[in-house]
């Protein structure tokens, strides 16, 4: 078993959750799926659909975890800008993870193609944008769970295949 810790931070991007209009169900859904994959959840954060807040949270937690996932704000609505706030933080893209999530999602929800989420690496940390709905979170993590872990092991120097 690899010695690499599997610490994950979950960032919920939602104006309405941030304002308390409704309870965050997507963040807890991500936590549950990640725990099943063997991750320790080191942070759960809620931020509005504001680029500085999203970018700051990514910068903070990418230095303290091997995986940071965001949920929400990946769509085409005017305030959906999570991908745009994520790109400046990434050093290397891992586009296949986002592509696989969209392809897998399309079997459940044809509108999965409208998630503009990105995925990539900052140092040894893998960052992945998930869609905002709890259903989208679960479906997406189910589709890429093991791929995430392999990517993290490689990024952290465990290159055994
Ligand atoms: N964190 C969340 N918890 C529970 N439900 C959510 C969450 N994010 C999204 N959803 C559900 O998915 C739907 C579409 O996602 P959308 O991105 O519009 O929500 P949102 O990010 O909370 O929106 P906004 O940022 O405008 O408040 C929402 O109407 C809601 O039903
Ligand atoms: N697997 C999966 N992906 C999904 C969905 C879903 O239900 N399941 N919802 C789609 C919808 S309806 C939208 S609008 C986009 C963007 O959602 P977001 O803006 O909440 O991130 O995610 C898409 N991706």
What features would you describe in this structure?
The protein is of the alpha/beta class. It has a single domain (7-155), classed as Molybdenum Cofactor Biosythetic Enzyme, Chain A (3-Layer(aba) Sandwich), CATH 3.40.980.10. The chain is built from 6 helices and 6 strands; from the N terminus they run βααβαβαβαββα. It has a 6-stranded mixed β-sheet with strand order 2-1-3-6-5-4, sandwiched between helices. A hairpin with a 2-residue loop joins β5 (119-122) and β6. α2 (26-36) packs across α6 and α5 (95-106) runs antiparallel to α6. The radius of gyration is 14 Å and the shape is globular. The two termini are 13 Å apart. The model has no long low-confidence stretch (mean pLDDT 96). Bound molecules: adenosine-5'-triphosphate and ligand MTE. Adenosine-5'-triphosphate (ATP) binds at residues 12, 14-17, 24-27, 49, 71-73, 75, 79, 132-134. Residues 72-75, 80, 105, 108-109, 111-112, 114-115, 131-133, 135-136, 139-140 line the site of the ligand Nc1nc2c(c(=O)[nH]1)N[C@H]1C(S)=C(S)[C@@H](COP(=O)(O)O)O[C@H]1N2.
What keywords describe this structure?
161 residues; alpha/beta; Molybdenum Cofactor Biosythetic Enzyme, Chain A; 6-stranded mixed sheet; 6 helices; binds adenosine-5'-triphosphate; binds ligand MTE
């Amino acid at each position: 078993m690899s010695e690499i810790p599997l610490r994950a931070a979950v960032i919920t991007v939602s104006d309405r959750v941030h304002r308390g209009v409704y309870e965050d169900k997507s963040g807890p859904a991500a936590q549950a799926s990640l725990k099943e994959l063997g991750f320790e959840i080191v942070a759960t954060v809620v931020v509005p659909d504001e680029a500085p807040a999203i970018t700051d949270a990514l910068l903070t937690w990418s230095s303290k975890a091997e995986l940071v996932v965001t949920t929400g704000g990946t769509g085409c609505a005017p305030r959906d800008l999570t991908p745009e706030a994520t790109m400046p933080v990434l050093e290397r893209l891992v586009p296949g993870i986002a592509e696989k999530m969209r392809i897998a999602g399309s079997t459940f929800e044809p509108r999965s193609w409208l998630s503009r989420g990105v995925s990539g690496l900052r140092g040894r940390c893998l960052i992945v944008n998930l869609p905002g709905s709890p259903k989208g979170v679960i479906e997406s993590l189910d589709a890429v769970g093991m791929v995430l872990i392999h990517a993290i092991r490689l990024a952290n120097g465990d290159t055994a295949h």
